[in-house]
Amino acid sequence: MKHFCYLTVLILIWLQWGCKQEQFKPEDFSHAIENGEKANEGYRRSLNLTKAWLEHVDPESGLIPTTLVDGRKDFWEVENSAADNYPFMVLAAYLLDDSLYQGEMLDILHKEKELTSRVRTLPDTYQFSTKKFKREEPDMNWILFGSAEYIKDGLLPLLEFIGDSPWNSRMMEMLNDLPYVYNVLKEIELDDKQGGQGHYLAASEEVNGEMLQILSRVYWMTGDKKYLDWAVKIADYYLGGEHDLTQSEYLRLRDHGCEVIGGLSELYVTLNYVNPELKKKYQNNLHKLLDRVLEVGRNEDGMFFNAINAKTGVVKDSMIVDNWGYLLNAHYSVYLIDGKEEYRNAYFEAIKHLNSKYRNFKWEGTSVDGYADAIESAINLYNREPDASLKEWMDSEIKVMWDMQKNNGIVSGVYPDGNFTRTSIMYSLWKTKGIHCSPWREDLKFGAEVNGEDLMIAIKADRPWKGKLTFDRQRHKEILHLPIDYPRINQFPEWFIADREKKYVLVSSNQNLNGQYSGDELIEGITINLEDDRPVFIKIRLDSEN
């Protein structure tokens, strides 16, 4: 009730100052104002978490530890520190603190490459106290696993959002060195007696699945057929008859194991455009796998179990998958290509009971990682098929995740804190519809909402601010050159997109901004000057003359 009253007063203050012109009706901007408050909280929490972790860097190496709470605080682990935490610290700095992005974030990249590269450019776990690698001899299984994790979970999302950068260069050099140690992984056991992950049943599927995702996207980005050919070799192992996942006695559907299902769907989308004959060859076996997962892998609410015996249909682990959207991404992608309505319907079946049964749910127990993945699942699919009940659930559950953050900025003190940042930024980008104001400040609040043909924008700061308002671009086309924007794991969805070839009409409470703008101009940014605490309101739409 207190939050509602505060928000109501805030909206009234904003509207009192900003909506004096006839075309700015108060009710048109209430959602944009509210979204600005929510986006600001997500951004503040992300930057606070990033800075809190930086207080714990190893003074000698400059790298962040895997955890702050146990023996692994002496290690930079590639599959954890590098893959799950550091990249989203980079993204927070990119959006919110340019000096941090150009400074300490880049320094960590340089030190990581210098200190942890072990097999050519491929990294291994580094120990701070000894200033050496954790293992005396290179364990190629762990080097392969860590490299695939670092590229797919961390560097690939950075590429998709930022574009070309030093982090992309690091990704490509590792990817191009992987053929020296890996082609298709058919059997792997990660059993680290020094206190690592322990026996890990889904490692082969995770690595192969991650590589399918990486190679499919990098093929489109570069146009180099060697990446496509490599991906096809992996897919042949699963869809060519040698290793039929529908006959697997332990098919892990939760995080890690689900990667191969997503990877096969990504390559399938690619083949639809570049090799329809091979796509047709894979079609029945991929459909059979996706059908089997829906048939025996879900509970009565349409939510997935952690693991199943795909051959017999017996549930091997009845806990509920937090990254349910990762699996549904695969189904929805194939729906986009083949039009199988049951794959689209699986999404609506899964979200039907979220508000009644899955609020304050123990995704992965008390782990923040479970909440981060569950909310990401929702955001990515909502982007394709908006649903009012799903919006309500996301707005509720983000508060549960945010409440896990301590006053000092740290969440759990373990590497999945990075996923808290990742999902908070995803949520904030949804609430801003991809617009951004830079340089960012804690008191700067900007939000947006679509109202019919108009994008409604509200911008306010507590003290004078001057900077640029920028609009998002078709990143899936401009950066990756994808043929369609299919849903994929750890992507940051596109919301309101400025088309470079279109013209837009902008009207504002600041009449100096009124006029026609090209998509290029919106992407490059419009100068905004907030001279005091009065807000600026903007309506923008496509010019009817396009």
Describe this structure in words.
The protein contains 18 helices and 16 strands. The protein folds into three domains: 108 residues, Immunoglobulin-like (Sandwich), CATH 2.60.40.1180; 124 residues, no CATH class; 228 residues, Glycosyltransferase (Alpha/alpha barrel), CATH 1.50.10. It has a five-stranded antiparallel sheet with strand order 10-11-16-13-14. Strands 1-4-5 form a three-stranded antiparallel sheet. Strand 7 and strand 8 form a beta hairpin. Helix 7 packs parallel to helix 9. InterPro entries: 6-hairpin_glycosidase_sf, Chondroitin_lyas.
> What is the overall number of helices?
18
**Proportion in helices:** 40-55%
Number of domains: 3
SS class: alpha+beta
Low-confidence stretches are 9-22, 193-199
Largest sheet: 5 strands, antiparallel
Q: Residue-averaged pLDDT, rounded?
A: 93
The strand line-up of the biggest sheet is: 10-11-16-13-14
CATH architecture of the largest domain: Alpha/alpha barrel
Radius of gyration: 23 Å
What portion of residues belong to β-strands?
A: 5-15%
Can you tell me the CATH topology of the largest domain? Glycosyltransferase
Shape call:
globular
> What's the CATH C level of the largest domain?
Mainly Alpha
Q: How many strands? A: 16
InterPro entries: 6-hairpin_glycosidase_sf, Chondroitin_lyas
